[in-house]
Amino acid sequence: MNRENLKPVTDQAELEDVCGRLSEGSFICVDTEFHRESTYWPELCLIQASCPGFEVIIDPLDEDLDIGPFLSLIAQESRPKVFHAARQDLEIFNRLIGHPPGPVFDTQIAAMALGIGDSISYDNLVQRLLKQQVDKSSQLTDWKRRPLTDKQLVYAMGDVTHLRDAYEIMIEQLDKQNRLEWVRSEMAELEDPALYDVSPENAWQRLKLRKPHKEYAAIFASVAAWREQKAQDMNKPRRRIIKDDAIQEIADQKPTDEQGFERMRSIPKGFIRSKYADGLMNAVKRALDDPDAYAPYIPKRKHNAETPAGAPEMLKVLLKAVSDEENVVPRLIANAADIEKLARGETSKDIAAMNGWRYDLFGKKAEALLSGKLALSFEGGQVRLFEL
Known about the structure:
The chain is an alpha/beta fold and 388 residues long. The chain has 17 helices and seven strands. The chain has three domains: 194 residues, Ribonuclease H-like superfamily/Ribonuclease H (Nucleotidyltransferase, domain 5, 2-Layer Sandwich), CATH 3.30.420.10; 95 residues, HRDC domain (DNA polymerase, domain 1); 77 residues, Orthogonal Bundle (DNA polymerase, domain 1).
């Protein structure tokens, strides 16, 4: 690591220069430090970036710095952008550039395809792949404070220098095992702008709709939309407006006046007389006046076939055996919902395990097991598969 690069970039001409250096690389590793404990929108406090032979820290909080050149660089689709546990970083850049900065490579997901770990932390990944220790003592830093110490900057820079080395090892291993396509298909979900949608009208989708009744659903969606808009306008966390439980209770109780709200356990005393009151009450009244306009489409619940006794357990054993043999994290192949659907005899293409490489690896065997064409046995401490 070049210690001269520890000084964050705050000069516009220097930023143009470092972006030129980064653009020469075949990939760019990116990490961010941000603050959002008391805000709705994450406040970007630091950007770390690296490419082969070069690394840099950029200070987006500097009043005289326009980070536009860096945003333009990562918006280009000509090279992969490498992250670890990319979701929150991508959320930030999605808002800044209007779309996720693809193509994306997430080393946490790639680790699953290589059997290294499920939701593995960055420091554990570095230990496993690079045999190095990450100093986590600056992990809880207040990244808004200036100036930052050398220790903090070393920690921040390590997030992209180790990442660069890990990426090159992982790409080589994935290519050798013919698993690059596995990872690319997973990254496509991270690159979908719908994943970062914060439209108030869709806010209800983040919550659990507990009842199929139209009035309940209409109030539920209307109040969720009101809260989302209010949180965005005030730049405060959703929970600081009202909590999730309050939305559920309001949809259940359908209060239309101050007394109705005051009787609710999830609404703080005096809340309905606050500056939020009119907007919240109006959200409920609008939904009750025209439920059809506010209630989201709720598909009829399907009557699921009875799950044969022992089928899920057998499929889990099969999944563990396949994942062990192939050295891949089981959840990457099939999740609990997939197992339950397969156990009931569903073969829909909506089940991830019945598509592409997952089907070749596990889906075919699952079908054979459930149809009596494949058997499981336990020999010498190992699960064995036998075709019948």
